[in-house]
Amino acid sequence: MPDPLGPLFDALESINNELTGFAARLARLEDAGSVRRAAGGPGSGGEGAGEAGARAPGAPVVWHKLSADERGALWIEFAAWVVRMADQYELTTEQLPHACWWEHGAVVAELTALWTGWESAYGNEEDAAAGPYLWHDAWSRGIERIGRMWLGECTNGYHNEKSRTLWGTDPAYRKKILDAGPPGAAGKPKAA
Fold first, then answer.
1. Taking the C-alpha atoms of 106, 110, 113 and 114 in order, what is their torsion angle to the nearest 10 degrees?
2. Residue range 53-63: average pLDDT?
3. pLDDT, tens digit, for every residue of 73-83?
4. Confidence check: pLDDT of 27 > 50
5. Are 42 and 55 a contacting pair, CB within 8 Å?
6. How many alpha carbons fall within 13 Å on the CB side of residue 115?
């Protein structure tokens, strides 16, 4: 007669093996974090924390909030990534204009989000989760959005500014908005 507790012991052994694997992985990650902190490396918060290299892979990048040095160092890394991805994914100039993608703030913002997402998805060699698959979904949607919404006439090989009014350059416009107040403010008509 088979041991009735056999399947239970097998399950417990399997769980124990998984926990042992997780403990080993956690120890490796903690060791890596200790090494980075001791070296003042990325994410350390130590001596190198103010330097561009101190940004943890996958951390958001807000270009206008970076110092000139940080911006310059990250821009080199970012531009190399964009060029590498454009070649790897065989992008056409209709998807991402070779001549001027960096001259479109919205395109840079979209590509920056894709870059930091890529770093997050691929930066952890120990994570075999769905990150890379989800990043590819975001990449596909982002590249489609870039070509469809933000490039104007630039797909023909040269830069051509979109015909539009810059909202932030007219002080009277800004005053009009601020004077109007938020929707529902006393004495103001409610927004639909």
1. -160
2. 82
3. 999 999 999 99
4. yes
5. yes
6. 24
Three-state DSSP at 189 gives coil
Task: Report whether 186 contacts 126 (CB < 8 A).
Answer: no
Amino acid at 161: E
Phi-psi region of 183 (alpha: psi -120 to 50; beta: other; left: phi over 0): beta
Contact 12, 19 (CB under 8 A): no
Q: Give 107-127 pLDDT, tens digit per residue.
A: 999 999 999 999 988 887 666
| Residues comprising the chain, all counted | 192
Distance CA(149)–CA(97), nearest Å, equals: 13
Against a cut of 0.70, is the pTM above it?
A: no
User: 3-class secondary structure for 81-123?
Assistant: HHHHHHHHCCCCCCCCCCCCHHHCHHHHHHHHHHHHHHHHHHC
- How is the chain split among helix, strand and coil, in percent rounded to 5? 65, 0, 35
User: Which is higher by pLDDT, 168 or 66?
Assistant: 66
d(CA 80, CA 31): 30
